[in-house]
Design brief:
By secondary structure, the protein is mainly alpha-helical. Helix content is about 85%, strand content about 0%. It has helices spanning about 1-35, 45-65, 70-85, 90, 100-115, 120-130, 135-150, 155-160, 170-200. α1 (about 1-35) packs antiparallel against α9 and α2 (about 45-65) packs antiparallel against α3 (about 70-85).
Length: about 200
């Protein structure tokens, strides 16, 4: 009985630890191996995009199997697809500068339409998600990405700390590393949530 309680928690801790090690590993690889300045081709940036792709794919795959939660899962997948498109704006600029916005709007409109069309179903599924422990980690990840990393990476803050000629790579490392950690929290939350949902049947 006791092991039934401890084992899932220990397993979750091991998985979360592995996620943290991957984040730190990406940063160390960029700094010590590639001598990168956190450009679009950095390991850190690529890992951000891969995590977003995996999270969106997990939600989409589950949506195909779970009719009751499908609208909410599509909404959540759409949110992470929009983040992925924004992260890859440099690729969309090959088509036309700023074209990422139109792709994001298309995905957003479709996801929101599905959510609104099945309003009660969507609200019920979101309420279920919010009642689970994984919701807290998802919120922490999203807040880290959308708020904390943005303020932490403000030029004004770094100029005040290190002067006008501060090393740009230090700011980029801090900002992109924090952002990657936030995305990792989202991935861990998604893994835990979908595992719980699968266990519920």
């Amino acid at each position: 009985m006791i092991m039934n309680i401890f084992y899932p928690k220990i397993q979750g801790l091991v998985i979360a630890t592995a996620g943290c090690i991957l984040v730190i590993g990406a940063l160390f690889t960029d700094v010590f191996v590639l001598a990168d300045e956190m450009k679009e081709s950095s390991v850190t940036e690529i890992m951000q995009e891969l995590i977003l792709l995996v999270v969106a794919s997990l939600f989409i795959c589950r949506a195909g199997k779970d009719k009751a939660r499908r609208p909410a899962l599509i909404l959540m997948a759409g949110f992470f697809i929009v983040l992925l498109i924004r992260e890859m704006d440099f690729a969309f600029d090959i088509l036309s500068h700023g074209s990422w916005l139109w792709f994001s709007l298309t995905v957003s409109v479709y996801a929101v339409y599905q959510a609104v069309r099945h309003g009660q179903q969507t609200l019920a599924a979101l309420a279920d998600f919010m009642s689970r422990p994984s919701w807290g980690m998802m919120c922490a990840g999203i807040l880290t990405v959308l708020i904390f990393s943005r303020f932490f990476g403000m030029n004004e803050l770094w100029r005040h700390i290190a002067g006008e000629d501060y090393p740009r790579v230090a700011k980029n490392l801090a900002e992109e590393g924090t952002e990657l950690f936030g995305y990792m929290l989202c991935l861990l939350s998604t893994h835990d949530y979908l595992r719980e949902v699968s266990a519920d049947g």
